[in-house]
Design a protein that fits this description.
The chain is an all-alpha fold. It is 63% helix and 3% strand. A two-stranded antiparallel ribbon has the order 1-2.
Length: 561
């Protein structure tokens, strides 16, 4: 491409980025338009108006950019990374509009109706945000920073929230939070590629820029369409399983059928996408149901397995790839080992977070009732952390520091690359471990020896192994560097009652796109910390490199130096 080429007097590089980011915004406008229908179903007229206005604004910008630069060349890898970074940021910015508009357009008496329908609403305190007072958490989104935070958390699948009482949110906002995570879990760019993009290398550049490598089919368009077919199938099964489980629980049996289905729908969407937003007041702890927690375990685990493995298992009707694939095998190993270690930690250090309740007859083997609860919560929270889902069944803020640090490690590692999870990914952690062993083993071999390493069926020579090791180490080092830097900032601005383990836990949750919280995140947190978490969630979703390429392009442009 000529460095001097322009499209409508705009440099070609910028026109490529503007056109494809416009496609992302056009897709988002379509999702907002769908949400207008949800508002109409629940007769939330102010919600319908808010989403209609948001969709119109987003469509005008997105389709305008797409049409203006329709003749721009196809993106290359450098463009793909910048489009991914810019696209995720812009989608989060425009995704905040429904929160902001509905918070301002909805009268206080209508907000009160949302509170009246919520359980235990009498205990909720009224708050004043930018001149409006209400007990509905919708009022928090009058603050643009809170609205942007909620949108970024939704699209990146992080699950941290500014909503103190989720049941007091309008149904349309509850839906939008879940819908963002459901789409964002698979990837905004993957969805847009499947619907809007033209076949060719440009599509693969966008696909790879979103931290995805493996293709199910030779055609990238066919690959992402297959990914969505699998995702929709799993979602339908998850909704059915959750509806049955909620209906059978003590809490759910008291709900109207439509409300049990509504909660099942939202939790299935955010569970499978490993997002973690909830429509109940205390996440999954609201139900206090071993059955619901057990049903959610495989749902969360499915979201942490790479999509190509799902495709092979479903198409061949053979479960062997679940163990043959390196990442999936290690995911199961980490699930098992982590559950045992965390259970031992929490059973040995019982706190007030663990109510004295017998579970699965564990008291018959010499455990106290509180220890039985500690083991139950350890199982669920470890799977939730490693899968980067963020559903919470326990007051983790009241855990001992050891338990918080173990969960922090799980959130840093995450699940399989090519799935919906965050973190540095299992394949990178494994490659670094193998690389260290490989480097040491070379010390004891003659210089003439041919040293190879086998990673996930790939036989790598010296140069290939060094490249793989260095790439994994660089990304992981940058990831952990940002984690440490952010922890230093947060420990200085957070309430002094939070210790270092709480701070590290909260940053790992934000940057790992998890959503578990020790209590730091909320509308009362310092604005500096809130803005930093927005950065952490954005960087974590894109695995740093696209964001660095984006920053470099701002400072020096896209041409080589």
């Amino acid at each position: 491409m000529s460095a001097n080429r322009t499209v409508r007097r705009i440099p070609a590089d910028l026109s490529i980025i503007a056109r494809d980011v416009g496609s992302l915004l056009a897709m988002e406008a379509g999702l907002m338009a769908i949400s207008v229908g949800v508002a109409l179903v629940f007769t939330e007229w102010y919600g319908a108006l808010s989403f209609l206005l948001a969709a119109g604004i987003t469509a005008a910008v997105g389709l305008g950019a797409r049409r203006a630069f329709a003749d721009a060349p196809e993106p290359r890898m450098k463009h793909g990374m910048i489009i991914a970074a810019t696209g995720w940021f812009c989608v989060a910015v425009f995704g905040a509009l429904p929160f902001l508009l509905m918070a301002y357009l909805t009268p206080s008496q209508v907000m009160q109706s949302y509170v009246s329908s919520a359980p235990e609403s009498a205990t909720y305190e009224a708050v004043t945000v930018f001149g409006a007072t209400s007990r509905s958490s919708l009022v928090y989104f009058r603050n643009p920073l809170h609205a942007f935070f909620e949108s970024m958390s939704g699209w990146t699948g992080s699950g941290l929230t500014m909503a103190v009482h989720e049941p007091t949110l309008p149904r349309t906002i509850q839906w939008w939070r879940s819908f963002m995570q459901w789409v964002g879990g698979v990837g905004v760019i993957v969805l847009t590629t499947a619907i809007l993009a033209r076949p060719g290398s440009g599509s693969y550049a966008l696909y790879r820029s979103e931290a995805r490598e493996e293709k199910i089919h030779p055609s990238i368009i066919s690959t992402v369409q297959t990914v969505w077919k699998i995702f929709v199938l799993y979602t339908a099964l998850a909704v059915l399983a959750m509806f049955v489980a909620i209906s059978l629980s003590d809490y759910g049996s008291q709900l109207p059928t439509w409300q049990a289905f509504w909660q099942a729908l939202n939790h299935a969407m955010t569970g499978l996408s490993t997002g973690g937003f909830s429509v109940t007041d205390n996440s999954i702890a609201t139900y206090d149901s071993p059955l619901i927690e057990t049903v959610l375990l495989p749902i969360m685990a499915l979201g942490a397995i790479a999509f190509p493995i799902h495709y092979v298992v479903l198409s061949n009707r053979d479960a062997e790839p679940l163990w043959e694939d390196l990442q999936t095998r290690w995911l199961f190993i980490l699930f098992g080992v982590g559950i045992v270690v965390l259970s031992l930690q929490n059973a040995a250090a019982v706190t007030s977070a663990f109510e004295a309740t017998n579970y699965a007859g564990l008291q018959t083997v010499g455990l106290s009732a509180a220890q039985a609860t500690a083991i139950r919560d350890s199982v669920f929270q470890w799977v939730s952390a490693l899968s980067c889902t963020g559903f919470q069944s326990s007051g983790i803020g009241d855990w001992k520091p050891g338990g918080k640090l173990l969960l922090s490690i799980a959130m840093v590692v995450g699940g399989a690359a090519g799935s919906t999870v965050g973190g540095i990914k299992i394949i990178r952690a494994y490659t670094i471990g193998r690389g260290i062993v490989w480097q040491f083993s070379r010390v004891f071999l003659p210089e003439s020896a041919v040293v190879t390493a086998n990673i996930n069926g790939r036989n790598l020579g010296r140069n290939e192994m060094e490249r793989e090791f260095s790439e994994a180490a660089i990304v992981s080092l940058l990831w952990i560097g940002l984690l440490v830097a952010s922890s230093i900032v947060l420990v200085n601005v957070a309430d002094p009652s939070y210790g270092l383990s709480d701070v590290l836990f909260e940053v790992a949750s934000a940057q790992g796109n998890v959503g578990l919280s020790s209590g730091i995140t909320g509308p009362a947190m310092p604005s500096l910390a809130e803005g930093m978490f927005i950065l952490n969630m954005w960087v974590g979703r894109l695995e740093i490199i696209p964001v660095l390429v984006f920053a470099r392009s701002i400072l020096y442009g896209l041409n080589p130096r």
